[in-house]
Amino acid sequence: RRIEIELEDHPDVSAALLIPKRELEERKGGVVRKVQRVMFPGYVLAGTEDIIKLFQITYRVDDLLKILRHEGVFREIRLDEISQIVYMADGDGVIGISDMEFDEGNHVHVLAGPLKGYDGWITKVDRRKQRAKVRFAFDGLWREIWLSVRLL
Description:
There is one protein chain. This protein has helices spanning 51-58, 79-88, and strands spanning 3-7, 10-18, 21-28, 31-38, 45-47, 69-70, 73-74, 94-95, 98-102, 108-112, 122-126, 131-138, 141-151. The protein is mainly beta. Strand 3 and strand 4 (31-38) form a beta hairpin. The radius of gyration is 18 Å and the shape is elongated. The model is unreliable at 1-5 (pLDDT under 50).
């Protein structure tokens, strides 16, 4: 979820944290229930104006393993790479369930929900599980992630 933090001993350093999640409908024992799953396990996205200070402060945090770096330089995941996630997610960083239908030519049309306007990013649909595989740019790579949909 999105959290604004201000580090107590360092009021000049702040970061907006985001752990992107997706809401899924899962069927177990004939019962359908909604669950939330992390989209990119192990990643916490941090938006900050001063990554060096944030790194210096968080370096000794026990549960923080590392900040991504490449050739000694901090790796930045640019907004244009993750804008799709940011715009689809709600205030808690969760991408919910979208309503979609197929036309006579078997083309997908998203009618409502976070996938509305992103029809072209859908690469596959599993009608039985009611999920759509959606293409996301993340950390310099294209990744495909299953999202729940309601087929109308």
